[in-house]
Write a structure and sequence with these properties.
This protein is an alpha/beta fold. Helix content is 36%, strand content 14%. It has a single domain, classed as Rossmann fold (3-Layer(aba) Sandwich). Strands 2-1-3-4-6-5-7-8 form an 8-stranded mixed sheet, sandwiched between helices.
């Protein structure tokens, strides 16, 4: 991995002045990922917070060639561009090494974009797909997605007398994509920037498809302060809600191994979307949530060969 000094000299490929909310985790994720690219990059993004706020016509915050895709087909579009590039290279019409990266939020990745993503991974395109996971369809009104955590309140899984937020567990997309047997899949967080940039460098280097799932908190949807984005992301890792790991050619590695995880409530309490869970009567929901986190953590450690 490049040193801090070397990284500080690299140009910022997503400029400031865009219209994303203060404290938005998406732009932080994009900057960190693009710092891992050491060759020219072509980027695409599904419709969502990142796209609508970084490319309001006629302006753009992107300093790389950028393609706006529909909500569900960022992976398909970038895989097509990569295929065209490979054809031109075979014909000798282009000799430059170029990498291709698609970005999408959890709505456009976990849910309506999963078919597109799965197809691109299965076909083996030499591309990177990055999901910036903020846990809901934030751009359209904070509706629940497949990434929304158990118990979280959203506009379509409201907390009330009938239910204490979303009744389902979140989808484990990183493991789903790893099951495609691609060269590289990883889970990362904007709070651990060295880990994320290192994973991005690996993703851009491998020959074939690579996937990174990045936790990117949304202050508005999570109901936290604009200055708490990094801290809440760090707590997600420290409590085991969002483990950091990677799968390289089938080999599983746990990248963050604390002696003991912090209690899950340390991550939940600061967030307004979980406020209802701390009212009398919801103790069982908190216990179930902690049980699932512990269970998943032990299963992941076993898979990674960690005692």
């Amino acid at each position: 991995m490049a040193t801090i000094k070397e990284l500080s000299r690299k140009p910022d490929l997503l400029s400031g002045g865009h219209r994303l909310c203060a404290g938005c985790g998406a732009s932080i994720a994009v900057r960190q990922v693009l710092l891992g690219a050491n060759t020219p990059v072509v980027a695409g993004s599904a419709t969502g917070c990142l796209e609508v706020s970084s490319t309001p016509y006629p302006f753009t915050a992107w300093k790389v060639p950028f393609i706006h895709n529909a909500f569900e087909n960022s992976a398909a579009t970038i895989s097509g561009v990569e295929a065209a590039y490979q054809a031109l290279k075979r014909k000798g019409k282009i000799d430059k090494d170029i990498k291709f990266v698609a970005f999408g939020g959890d709505g456009g990745t976990y849910d309506i974009g999963l078919q597109s993503l799965s197809g691109a991974m299965e076909r083996g395109h030499n591309m990177v797909y990055v999901c910036y996971d903020n846990g809901a369809y934030m751009n359209t009104g904070i509706q629940r997605s497949g990434a929304t955590p158990f118990g979280a309140a959203t506009t379509t899984s409201p907390a009330g007398k009938v239910r204490a937020g979303k009744p389902q567990q979140r989808k484990d997309l990183t493991q789903i994509i790893a099951a495609h047997n691609i060269p590289y899949a990883a889970q990362a967080s904007i709070s651990h920037w060295k880990d994320l940039i290192k994973k991005a460098e690996k993703a851009f280097t491998v020959d074939g498809p690579a996937f990174i799932n990045v936790l990117a908190p949304c202050p508005r949807g999570w109901r936290v302060g604009n200055d708490e984005t990094i801290e809440i992301a760090k707590l997600a890792v420290q409590t085991g809600f969002w483990p950091l790991y990677e799968v390289e050619d089938g080999e599983w590695t746990l990248n963050f191994k604390p002696k003991e995880l912090k209690p899950l409530v340390d991550f939940l309490k600061p967030q307004g979307r979980f406020r209802h869970l701390f009212k009398p009567g919801n103790e069982q929901v908190l216990e179930e949530f902690q049980f699932q986190i512990n269970k998943n953590w032990e299963m992941l450690k076993k898979r990674c060969g960690v005692e």
